[in-house]
C-alpha cells in the first residue's frame, strides 16, 4: 500500500491527458454531439473559489455525458475586454492590455489545475484582434440590417467609471453601477444602440428550450409587455387658445399609452415627465422659471424616489392645454416627477378617480375628480379615495352602462373600437425593455467600426479593412470622453466610399457584445474567412447545456438571445435559440457568509486549497458541501470529510486482501447496492444534483468495506462493484479515478502484486475517461423486501415488511391482518369482533391507507 498523495498524481495525469489529446473535440458524424458550455471568466485578477464552484460541476457533467456515448465539446476562453479588466488595471496603474494578458497567462495555469476536460485548442480571447475583427463584423451586419443606430438621448452615466451604462447594468433600488456601486446620473449623449425592442415578442417565447422558471420569469418581467391603446391628445396652447378654440396644427399631438382607454372621459389633466422633449416647447413664458427649477430638482432624484408610493406628489403646471379626444374638453398639462420617460411615452392622461397617484395629485392641486367607473353600490357622491377596481361605466357618453373589463363586449375593447373608428387612437403594445446602449467612452474595448464622412455620413468599415485595431499608445485613463478621441492620429482616416478625409467613431463597444457570440467563436477560434467554420456550426450548434449564474438573466442571457435571433435574420445563424438547456448554480460565499471580496478579506484562494488537499478533494468538496443551485459559505472544516472519503477510496483499491469464503447473501447485497447507487447517480447527474451523488458514493463505499470484511474480495460481485465505483467516481474526481484505474490494471496496464506497473507492459493505455458509463441491472437493483407504511384514517399506525414482488391484494390482506390495525378496527366497531373498513387504499410501493 502507498499513501494517497494528490500532488504526485494530479500533475502527471493532467500532462498525459493533454499530451494524448484526450479531450480534443472533433467532428464525428458517427456519434451524437453534446456542446457543454460554462460562462467564461473575466481576466480581471486571479481565479477565486467561486470560479471553481461554477466550473468543476459543469466539467463533471460534461464528463458524464461523454461516458454516455456523446461526442462532447467543453471549451474555455476569456472575456478579456471591458470594465472589469480595465478598472483592475487602472487601480494598479498598469496598461489594460499588459494587465489582462498577464492575468490570462496565470488563469490558464489555474484552470489547468482543475483537471477539467477543456479542449484548449478552442480557447478564444475576446481582446485578440482575430476575435474582435468578427465582433466588429457583427456590428456592421446589425448596422446594415437597421438594427444598429445612433441617436442623442439621456443615458445612464457612471461618474466613477466615466462611461455610459446600459439600463441592464444599472442595479438596485438606488440605481447604482453594477460594477462599482456608484449612483448613476442622466447625461445627454450621442450613442449607438442595438434595436433589442424589435425582438421583444420573440424574446418572450421560450418554446423548445429548457430554462429555469426563475430566469424565464426575470426576463419576462424585464421585457414587461403591456397591451393597451395609444391615444392622441391635440395640444391647443395657452388659456387664450383654449378660450378661442384656435387650430391645433402648430404642435404635434401628445401620444399617451394607456391600458385603460375606457376611463378617457375621466381624464381631467395630463402629466409629462420632466425630461419629456415637449416640456421646453410647450411651457408658456410666464411658467418657464418655475418649470425649469422643477426639472432641475427632478433630475437630482432617483427613479425609485420618484416612483415611491409614500412620497407626496408634486408638480408644476406648464401653462399649456390639450384636448381630451373623446369630449374635446380642454385639460391642463402639468409636469410631475412621478411620471418617468422610461415607461410608455413619458406622458400620461391622469384619471384621478381611478388611480391612486393621480387622485393624490388632483386632491393637492384641487383638480376635478369625476367618476367614470361606478363602484358597486355607488351613490353618485364624490369618492373619498381612488377606485381602481371593476364596475360599470358612467359619465362617459356612448360607453355608459358597459361593464368595465377587458373581455369581449366589455369597456376596454368597446373604447378601443370607438377610438380606432374615429382615428383618435389605436390598440398598441408597449414594453419595459429598452434598446441596448452599446457605446462606451472607455479605452479597453472593441472599436466601433464606423467612419463619418462629410458627404456620406455614417459609413461602415469594409470587411477587408477589419479589424480596426485598438492602439496601444494611448492615454488610457478614463476622463469622461473616449481616450481614442484624444489620440492625435488614430481617428483620422478616409471615407471608404469617396476617399475624402473622414473621422473614425471613437467609442468602444460594451463588453457584452463580445460575450454575445463567444460560443460561436469556440467552434473555430482561428478561422479567418468568417466568424466561424460553417461545418463546425452545423455539427455542434446549438449549445446543449449552458451553465452560469442567474445574475446574468437580464443582461448577458437576453443579449445573447437577441444576438442569435438578429444574426438568424442576417442569415448568419440558424434556429431560434442559441442554448437549449440552461442551469444556474448558486454562489460560494466567504466563511463569514458574505460575498467574497478582497476588501472584506474573505476570499478563498483555490491554488492554496489545491496545495493543501489536491484538486480532486476541492472538486469533491464543492460538489458535496452544497446543493449546486444554492451555494453557501465556505467551511474549511467540512472539507476534511472529503479528505477522509478519498483516502478511504484509495485504501480500498490499494490494500491487498486474499480471497475467502463469502456468504451468498453478502454477494447479492453488494451487487444490489452497487446497482441501486448507479441508478441514483445516473439520475442525479442528469439533474445536476452533485451533493447527493457524492453522498451515494460515500454510502456505497461503506457497504463495500463491510462486504470485503465479510470475505467478498475476489468474487465477481466485488470486481464488478469496484469497476462500477471507479466509473461513477471519474467525472467527480478524475485524477484519483484515473490513477486507481491504472494501478488495478483496468487501463490495459499490467501490475505486479505491489500495485506497480510492470516493466514489460505492452498493451495500449486506455483511460477511464474513455470508458462507457455502466448500465443499471434493474433485476440486481431490485429489493427482496420492501417496507410499506400503514395508515388508519390518514394517521401512521404500523409498518409492513413484504416481499418486493407481493401483489396489491397480498399487501392489503397483510395490512388488514396487522394486530395494530385490528385494534383500531375493534375500537371503531365498539365490539370485540371488529368492523370492516369502508375502504382500503393502496399506493403502489408507498403506503396502505385504511378508512374506517
How do the strands and helices of this protein lay out in sequence?
Layout: H1 6-20, E1 33-38, H2 49-67, E2 71-73, E3 77-78, H3 83-92, H4 96-112, E4 124-125, H5 129-144, E5 148-158, E6 163-165, E7 170-171, E8 176-177, E9 185-194, H6 200-203, H7 213-223, E10 226-233, E11 235-237, H8 239-244, E12 254-258, E13 269-272, H9 278-282, H10 288-299, H11 303-307, E14 315-323, E15 330-336, E16 347-350, H12 356-365, E17 373-374, E18 392-393, H13 411-421, E19 425-430, E20 436-437, E21 439-440, E22 450-453, E23 457-460, H14 483-486, E24 492-494, E25 501-504, E26 508-509, H15 511-515, H16 518-521, H17 534-540, E27 543-549, H18 556-569, E28 579-585, E29 587-589, H19 606-613, H20 615-624, E30 631-633, H21 639-654, H22 664-686, H23 690-709, H24 716-729, H25 734-743, H26 778-781, E31 785-792, E32 795-803, H27 808-817, H28 819-829, E33 839-843, E34 847-851
Parallel strand pairs: 1-2, 1-27, 3-4, 13-15, 27-28, 29-30, 31-34
Antiparallel strand pairs: 5-6, 5-9, 7-8, 9-20, 10-12, 10-19, 11-14, 13-16, 14-15, 17-18, 21-26, 22-23, 22-25, 24-25, 31-32, 33-34
Helix pairs in contact: 1-25, 3-4, 19-20, 20-21, 21-23, 22-23, 22-24, 23-24, 24-25
Task: Please supply descriptive tags for the structure shown above.
35% helix; alpha+beta; 5-stranded mixed beta sheet; globular
Q: Quick one: how many beta strands?
A: 34
- Report the average pLDDT across residues: 90
Helix fraction by DSSP (H/I, runs of at least 4): 25-40%
Largest sheet: 5 strands, mixed
| Radius of gyration, in angstroms, nearest whole number | 35 Å
Q: Main sheet: which strands, in order across?
A: 11-14-15-13-16
Oligomer: single chain
Which residue ranges are poorly predicted, with pLDDT under 50 across at least 5 consecutive positions?
Answer: 750-761
Q: Which class of secondary structure composition applies to the elements?
A: alpha+beta
Distance between the termini: 64 Å
**Proportion of beta-strand residues:** 15-25%
User: With helices defined by DSSP (H or I, 4 residues minimum), what is the helix count?
Assistant: 28
* Silhouette: globular
